[in-house]
Amino acid sequence: MHLLQLDNTGEFSLVEFVGSNIPRYAILSHTWGADHEEVTIKDIVKGTGKDKAGYAKIRFCGKQAAKDNFQYFWVDTCCINKSSSAELSEAINSMFRWYHNAARCYVYLSDVSTRGSDGNDLSSQRTWKTAFQHSRWFTRGWTLQELLAPTSIEFFSAEGERLGDRNSLMQEIHDITGISIQALKGGPLSQFSINERVSWAKRRETKREEDAAYSLLGIFNVHMPLIYGEGRKKAFSRLQRETEQFLRDESTVPPSAPSIEGPKRNREPFSTVPVARCPDFMDRCNFSAWICEKCAVPMTYAAIVSPGDVGASQLAIKHENEARAVLPHGQSLANWRISVFRSPWPRSSSFERLASTPPMLATYIMQSHGPVLIMPPSKDEEDNGNGDGEGDNPIWDPRVYFLTILKTRIDEIVEDWTNLVRNLEEGVEQRIEKHPIVHLNSTTNGLDHVKSNIDWTVLIMALLRKCRGKLSSIIRAWDRAFEPDRFNTSDISIFYPFESSEPQVKAKAKLLWNETNKSFDKTRNIENTLNSLYMSCEEYSKILIVSMNLESSRLNLECHAINYRNLSLNQTAQLTNLTAGLILSVSLICGLMGARQPWS
Questions:
Q1: Domain check: are 306 and 432 in the same one?
Q2: Are residues 13 and 151 in the same domain?
Q3: 449: left (phi over 0), alpha (psi -120 to 50) or beta
Q4: Do 534 and 425 contact (CB within 8 A), yes or no?
Q5: How far apart are CA 153 and CA 156, in angstroms?
Q6: 369: which of 64, 428, 479, 526 lies 20 to 30 Å off by Cα?
Q7: 514 confidence band (pLDDT: 50, 70, 90)
Q8: HSE-up of residue 431 (Cα within 13 Å, Cβ side)
Q9: Tens digits of per-residue pLDDT, 552-596?
Q10: Backbone angles phi, psi at 105, to 5 degrees
Q11: Which residues pair with 27 in a beta bridge?
């Protein structure tokens, strides 16, 4: 990621940051003028472009960032090398995250002035508010995610005067855009239907027709290669497939998700309970009464800790069904949550279960005052000897060993991911080496040879997209949980709920946290490898397609594309198993730090 900085002489320079070593930065949101009026990355490197109209926006952002004590800031016109398709693709797929991670977002409205013609302050305010309502910024496609993604966003006039922030101008923004107040307040976008999110962008325009779809990638939390020239219809078609697949993976909507560009449908709320109730379930020890007592009022959470297979999930389902039966008509169960936690770690290979576990689980596992029901093993488990050992000890408290468990599990998952990526990498290299591009002739077997390679490449790219999407979500969740403003790494006492004044205990906690963070940082290297591998496959695929005799074969890559649903069961199971443990690790962290999960 390239960031700009302003030196003492008033000159701008670019600094590149890789991985997790990205400092706090401000970010600019604006509307583009003509391409020749905007300052490019080459202009910054060469020290040119000061006579361009777009230079005023960069100068404003630099001064405002310095005023707010930010050393670095980001502007899309000159922080992306658009001559590199790989860098452009990475930037567009990362744009929502970059705006969200920014410490401050400045919206520069070049068509809104605070200078009234008569110099009257009241008249000036009426003038800029009218101009604000009709600003071009509210009509552009890319500015939708720039409005919703940042945690802190401020609006400025053409003169650089502050007009207000998203909170103070929320009603005006709602009236202009029609976007839900809840979304403007930072509510999870996943709680809004596909069609509602698409409706927010309906009247917005983009210079390139494909960008109408690409600008929504962050809104739907999906990743997708860019194919400029494919047209608006195909771009939206691919976005629809990616979104529906993501939603199926995350189990946030039924498989029959509505079409992205189809008619709006009103769906009934559905339960996120991942398994059905067992009709033969028998309550024991009055556990149901305990749950009812702890979850008697809204906004209460309870965690059930069990060694597994003793009925904890059925207890939660029983309470969910009973609570739903007595709810007033139209009231949601969203504020009553019960989480099931198996000690010392869930063994479920189902990503759906982990994704549907409320993030608040960690809070009540970690905080001593939260209601935690520790269930003993069943009689059968005790008889079979499964109740022995620390993991299945009925008095085992997961709060004490949280960091140890977290680090151990992350190490295991990182190792599995590393092995998976290494195998994929070797497979791709061997395939390309053994199957070089051949000269094609429609009367030979060359066409079949290339078709076979294209099918194989598309399959691998689908697998890589799935891996990359999961891993990217995990990394975003981790970074969000440990934002500098949210988490003070000098105070690790949050991981040790019991009181202890012993310096060695705190020192051990600090050391263990550092080791845990280093372990997780390895996932960033894996993500970089996945990106490089994907780009290699993409280039290989392009060469394959170009080398075909399009006039005679009229090969359409889409006809040979292998949908994610057609991946073999073994491949799908491998992906979910590798992802499950790390997903829950981040779920626990997000809940602990009060951060929103990207898949929630």
A1: no
A2: yes
A3: alpha
A4: no
A5: 10
A6: 479
A7: confident
A8: 23
A9: 333 333 333 333 334 444 444 444 444 444 444 444 444 444 444
A10: -115, 125
A11: 74, 105
